[in-house]
Amino acid sequence: MIKAIISNGVIVPREPLPDDWQEGTEVAVELFPGELEQAEDKSDTDKWMDEVEATARLGNPMDDQRLEAAIQEIHRREKELARKRLGLEP
User: Is residue 5 a contact partner of residue 14, using CB atoms and an 8 Å limit?
Assistant: First the structure.
């Protein structure tokens, strides 16, 4: 069973969908018992965090890898510039 939350009127899965679920696959959605009461008890911050986490799960893991590689390259370049400014490199 795939769990999901409602975010801005859209059902957002909490985890990646199975590979065999192709575009246009029809699914059934039902409310968990007690889920409505729990949602009402959550603070605005908790609700916001649920939305942030649901959105993050929709992201492409390759984006994280590209971002990390870009950060590492920036660090490398900054170290190189600092060494040049200090006269430690020709």
Answer: yes
Q: Which of 23, 35, 36, 27 is nearest to 2 (CA)?
A: 27
Q: What is the CA radius of gyration of the chain?
A: 22
Per-residue pLDDT 10s for the chain (90 aa) are 788 888 888 888 888 888 888 888 888 888 876 655 555 567 888 888 888 888 888 878 888 899 999 999 999 999 999 999 998 876
Please give the full DSSP string across the chain, using - where no structure is assigned.
---EEEETTEEEESSPPPTT--TT------PPTTHHHHHHHS-HHHHHHHHHHHHHHTS-HHHHHHHHHHHHHHHHHHHHHHHHHTT---
Cα→Cα distances 84→26, 37, 74, 76, 79, Å: 60, 61, 15, 12, 9
How much is the pTM? 0.40
